[in-house]
Every structure is written in C-alpha cells, then in structure tokens.
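Help: read this over?
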Amino acid sequence: LEHRLFNLMLFLIILIAVWGSAYNYSLHLPMYTVYPCLIALAVAIFTFYLGRVRKAYSEPMIYPIVVLSTIILGFIFFLNSGSAGPMVIFILAMYHIFVILTNGRHQYTILIMLLVSVFTLYTVELMHPEFVSPYSGPVARFWDTLITFSVSTVILISSTIMFKRNYNNERRMLAQRNMELNESNAIIREQKVMLEQKTEHLEAALSEL
C-alpha cells in the first residue's frame, strides 16, 4: 500500500511541476520562477523511476519528497494569490498522503512540518504582500479554485480508499486465520476427547485383567 501511494504521490508531483513550469513560462514570468519547477520535475522523475521501475522504496525516502513538495507548493502558493487562493487545500491533501506513508513518530514529524510550513507561508505573505501575484480576474480565480479543489478531492478520496481497502483486506485475512485457528483447536479438542475415552477404556480393560 505505501509503495503504491508513494508512486501516486510522485506522479502527482510530476504533473504539478509540469503544469507549474508551463504556466509560468506561458505568462512570460522570469525564468527563476520556472527553474525550480524544472528541478523538482527532474528529481520527481528520478525518484519515480527508482520506486516504480527499480522497486526501491523505504520510509526515509519520503522526507526529501516532503521538503521538495513543500518548496514547490509554497512557490505556487504565492503565484496563486496566496491565502486568497486554494493552494492550502492542496497542501493539506499532499500531507494527508505523507501521513499515510509514514508510521509512528514520523507521522508527528510530518504533522509538525505541515503546521510550520503553513504558518511560514501566511507569515511571509503578511510581512511581504508584494510576493503575492493576484488573479487577473474572477474567471481565473474560479478555474484555479475549481481545478485545485477537484485534484485535492481526488488525492484525498483515492488515498483514503486505498488505505481503507488495505485495512479491510487485512481484517478479512485476520478473520480467516482466526477461523482456521478455531477449526484447528476444535479438531484438537475432539482428538483429545477421543484419546481420553480410549485411555479410559484401556485402563478399564487392564483393571479387569
């Protein structure tokens, strides 16, 4: 489950990086707004290759992706009208997958990273409002909000469905093992009763002799 979600997350990062670089380039923004997305695209493709083709996956691999995703999404946050835009919803959806991919204390680390990241974004926006690129009009805001909400919903629902499906499968397997164990115990008890009966009959026959 974790491996499949990890590959799904990397695929989404690739799509976001492609969209971000193409979007910034189409708006004739400075190239320093395009290069971070291209770097993130290269790193995501390489990591996706390791996870998908080479089947290499480990929990520590998540942290570089968390940092990379936070940087990219933070960058897009300011390009998409800051707190007036929907990027915080998308950030929450991505961190939802990060929490599912991790275990134990790593989950609390991811939670702290989420809170710190969002707090930092809002603080920077408050102190430097000139960093925020407002929407060109209500139509641009409408489509950006609609698309971001739709993608975030797909991420949340698909990851939850996969997690729930895996949980149900584990429960069914556990119930099946318990049933088999109960059947084995019942057979053992029957054999024990039969053995005790045969022992009693044998002792009775010996006492008569």
